[in-house]
Amino acid sequence: MTKEKKNKNSYEAKNAWTEMKEDERAEVFAFNKNYADFLTENKTEREFAGAAIAKLEAAGFKNIKEYKSLEKGDKVYIENRSRALMAAVIGEKDLKEGLKIVGSHIDSPRLDLKPNPLYEDGEMAMFKTHYYGGVKKYQWVTMPLALHGLVVKDDGSQIEIKIGEKADDPVFFISDVLPHLGKKQMKKSMTEGISGEQLNVVVGSIPVADSEAKDKIKAALLNHLKAEYDFQEEDFISADLQVVPAFKTRDAGFDRGLLAGYGHDDRVCSYTALEAILDLNDPLYTSVVLLMDREEVGSMGSTGMQSHFFEDQVANLVDLYYSDYSELIVRKVMQNSKVLSADVSAAYDPDFAEVYAKHNSAYLGKGIVISKYTGSRGKAGASEASAEFMGEIRGLFNQAGVVWQTAELGKIDEGGGGTIAQFLANYNMDVLDCGPAVLSMHSPYEVVSKADVYHSYLAYNVFLEK
């Protein structure tokens, strides 16, 4: 039987694993080991931003406040309320020729504690939560949960909280009705089976010995919080406390080619972008990495992409770079800039094949995904990259040996999603969505291909470098 020849003029996405040599595979696994450890340790945007700053400073980046002027080779970062971050390396070309930007977000779907969360019922102490981002609520019940965040007291002092991650830490959980009594629940839709108001976290069960005390278990828990962490019930009101899965990021599959963990969307892009700018040599253009907050809820707020933070910091760069600052220069810098909106795509899942456009889907192991547009249905809520910019990026990746594929987010009428691309495109920049594929996106335990993670790093690095 003769082997069928492939048409040289046809297009088919490559599998990244078959493209790499044995020594390259070892590098892929080592890179992903570091990423897995980072993801396990940093499950909130505050933690990610803090750890990112530590890495930047170790690599010679300085807070922009330390500079009186900027020139080629300078490395700066700007922090925004401990929840967002911008890092830049000043390039060889004049700033007016534009920036090379990789923009991502560091927030992920989760459960936030309500401002007044603690109550007692059914011989248990509970926390009331408010889910953040697009979650399937039923996925968050009956699994180990951890509590992360910050408590700010009325005197301004701060208390960092991280409970549920160490082997000897207690964990928390949300209960579900047993199947023996779940007849009515099982008749409901998956959306209605668990409501938002049922996402209550069990946090205690031992009462105080005082027979006169009201809500004895709640009272005991408040005594514990005061003794162990020095905060009281009113302090919950000025706290950023998040309930996240207590899982570690771990290898998945017999061959260990996949990585399962909480928060791949979008910390897989944020981490690879961070590593890409850390490893820059002498970039041609000034290179920028944006690690933004609140994308999962529309990018609103002071730390989201719709705030003036980015625009203000470009103005800050211009002011330190030129002696004759003007708003016109700021606009010229932005309109000449080029952006990779680093966000994930949906990996094809054969168990749910009916929602995917098979010939325009992303597949695990086939490299970073470039998406001409995102949005939903009639391309609503997204920017669209020009053919010229698509061709430029495709050529850049091909020349550098970056394995890539192209995809849409599911079938046209099934839904869709957006990224921060549209907000950067508003500045008249060339913008393209570009990130790895994720299986079980927005679940408490998402899955990515290690090969795709590594090629995302390569893609962002070569884009920032050239």
TrEMBL record:
A Pfam family: Peptidase_M18
Classification via SUPFAM superfamilies: Aminopeptidase/glucanase lid domain (SSF101821), Zn-dependent exopeptidases (SSF53187)
Broad class of enzyme this protein falls into: hydrolase
Alphabetized InterPro entries for the sequence: Peptidase_M18, Peptidase_M18_dom2
Domain of life: Bacteria
One GO cellular component, as annotated: cytoplasm
Cofactors: Zn(2+)
Enzyme Commission number(s): 3.4.11.-
GO molecular function, one term: zinc ion binding
Keyword check for Phosphoprotein: no
The entry's keywords: Aminopeptidase, Hydrolase, Metal-binding, Metalloprotease, Protease, Zinc
Gene Ontology process terms (BP): proteolysis
Family: Belongs to the peptidase M18 family.
NCBIfam families: PRK02256.1 (NF002600)
Protein's recorded name: M18 family aminopeptidase
